[in-house]
Design a protein that fits this description.
Strand order of the largest sheet: 2-1-5-4-3
Largest sheet: 5 strands, antiparallel
Number of helices: 10
Structural class: alpha+beta
CATH superfamily of the largest domain: Histidine kinase-like ATPase, C-terminal domain
Number of strands: 12
Helix content: 40-55%
Number of domains: 3
Length: about 375
């Protein structure tokens, strides 16, 4: 069958959509259905839907009842077993349709995908609140710092004893340090400048910077998909985002906890920069046909469970002396590109994953 029954706009949905006839033969499928089932539309069309699975937990009976009674159904936990493949846990919505070649419209959404979308929406809301808080805080702190520094300089000129001037120098230096910190807090709010960016040039720049900063103790491995196209982005912001994440991984590997972990297992610190294409990616509830999947993977001790959900919050750091701003800034820069960054961590493997849409110009949120 060559004619599409589903409109082209259905391919943009994150939900898998299938059209079935009265015999439960698949008559059409969208891109999300191809991704979910791991089969192309050409391979799906003409196949009896229940034959794709060894077990459907009553779904076939619900579909036939929908056809006979012309009444839809909703099941929020269906387990679909597939031969030699992982089972699918999905939400199912079946609706009767009055079409010459189809009788049921079936929508499937992976439960894990729904949880991820909700987590991304919460992360975006929290990030926006964090940015506004940081911006206001930075402005409130920055203004008095100038007066504080100026007063210390005036006081220093009035002091005759050199030993007392040491104290005014402490005030001036700390004021300068806080001034730099405030500038870093306000930097993400500049409008990015978009142009074509090769993500592997970004990764290579980050790799050289991190190896220069940490010349011993870690190895940075490349795992690139060299067929990836350029993306529209701000090169400097992307470098800073990836650098912050990679530097965070290096610091975790070379810190006391990381060194002890690697020594106990007789291994060496390794960071992997991995790039892949993501087909049909959903980012912040928006469907993108193509996206860049950039991962920074390290083999360190991992992030404490209670901290993983807060790792992108400002001023949250698991490292002594850390400002807790590096990952917050990385998240802000990625979101400037309409992307998302997430973290998964367990002892021996921590993955920071950045998803960036390909082929669409981003805009600052």
């Amino acid at each position: 069958m060559s004619d599409r029954l589903l409109g082209a706009s259905v391919d943009l949905l994150a939900t898998a959509v299938l059209l079935l006839d009265r015999r439960l033969v698949i008559r059409d499928a969208n891109v999300a259905a191809e991704t979910l089932l791991g089969l192309s539309r050409r391979a799906l069309v003409g196949v009896v839907f229940p034959t794709l699975f060894s077990e459907m937990k009553g779904l076939e009976d619900q579909l036939r009842a929908t056809i006979d009674a012309e009444r839809g159904f909703w099941d929020n936990d269906v387990r679909l077993l597939r031969v030699n493949r992982e089972p699918l846990h999905v939400n199912c919505l079946g609706s009767p349709v009055d079409m010459s070649e189809a009788s049921v419209l079936l929508e499937l959404r992976k439960i894990e995908q729904q949880v991820r979308i909700e987590r991304e929406a919460l992360q975006l809301t929290q990030s926006q609140a964090n940015r506004e808080l940081i911006r206001n805080l930075a402005h409130e702190i920055k203004n008095p710092l100038g007066g504080l520094r100026g007063s210390a300089q005036l006081l220093e000129h009035e002091l005759d004893r050199p030993d007392l001037r040491e104290y005014t120098q402490v005030i001036i230096k700390e004021a300068d340090r806080l001034q730099v910190l405030m500038e870093r807090l306000l930097t993400p709010h500049r409008v990015p400048t978009f142009a074509g960016v090769n993500i592997h040039e970004v990764c290579e720049r980050v790799r050289s910077l991190v190896l220069a900063e940490f010349p011993r103790g870690i190895r940075i491995r490349r795992d690139y998909d060299t067929s990836l196209p350029d993306i529209e982005g701000d090169r400097e912001q992307l470098i800073q985002a990836v650098l912050n994440v990679t530097r965070n991984a290096a610091q975790a590997l070379l810190g006391p906890a990381g060194a002890g972990w690697l020594e106990s297992f007789g291994g060496s610190g390794q960071i992997t920069l991995r790039t892949r294409i993501a087909w049909g990616a959903t980012i912040a509830r928006e469907r993108h046909r193509l996206a860049l999947d950039l991962q920074v993977i390290d083999n360190g001790p991992g992030i404490p469970t209670e901290m993983v959900d807060r790792i992108f919050y400002p001023l949250v750091s698991g490292r002594e002396g850390g400002t807790g701003l590096g990952l917050t800034l990385a998240q802000t820069f990625i979101q400037h590109h309409l992307g998302m960054i997430e973290c998964q961590s367990e002892p021996g493997r921590t993955v920071f994953r950045c998803l960036l849409p390909i082929g669409s110009r981003a805009a600052v949120r």
